Amino acid sequence: MAPAVLKTVADVKDWTAGLRREGHRLALVPTMGFLHEGHLSLIREGRRRADVVAVSIFVNPTQFGPREDLSRYPRDYEGDVAKCISAGAQVIFAPAGPEVMYPQGYQTYVEVTDVSQGLCGARRPGHFRGVATVVTKLLTLFRPEVALFGEKDYQQLQVIRALNQDLHLGADIVGMPTVREPDGLAMSSRNAYLSPEERQRALALSRGLKAAQALLREGTRESEPLVAAVRRELEAAGLREDYVELVDAERLTPLASVAPGQPARLLVAAFSGTTRLIDNMQLGGEENAGRV
Questions:
Q1: Are residues 164 and 195 in the same domain?
Q2: Are 265 and 281 in contact (CB under 8 A)?
Q3: Active-site residue, 168 included
């Protein structure tokens, strides 16, 4: 059965009012469309955690900088609807245009001050203000019991966790493991930009993280050699580094080393051709070296 499609804020309010009257538990999966297996894993987990799953499909203009790829960001609405059906989503919110979320005269934005600093926040000014604003609007509109996001966009996940807590929005924010291609490449809508050669070179991101993981397992805990292991792979593949950083997994502050039992994240951003890709893995803590 095709999911119900909501196009306006009024549609969402009417639909959620009915859902609450019937006492259903709601999971929300916010996306920008061009869905892949990573998104579908969120929908399927939402089905496990709630009675009803809603998926938003909205290419959010406020999180793109003036020289970024808003106009050419990949879109496939019909394909996305088919994938939502296959994964079990019951509702799709696909705003009829940007003015649905940002009507004329819109002037209110949300900023998360600490975990949005550094990393992608430093390289993409204004990006996380746009992310925080649209996610706050979606959580406020839908009031889901649970909202699901991928760990590939790890800094984004921490921004969303912070705003949900600070603004008392009440959702259970669930971070799901990065879904990868069989050769290790993290799934991303932007992978569609890569030529075959660029895609092959992009494997250096996951190779570098695996190399750092191996060093940690052998007892290396200092940041410098762990970061250097990633950089060697990027350089060998001819990728242009944007950043490689070892940070505290919750606060995202830089770490000089990984203390025993301390959850940490190693994050990388690099360009394969003109396409900027990101990836990360957990180091330390109970999961000891994360999932790559």
A1: no
A2: yes
A3: no
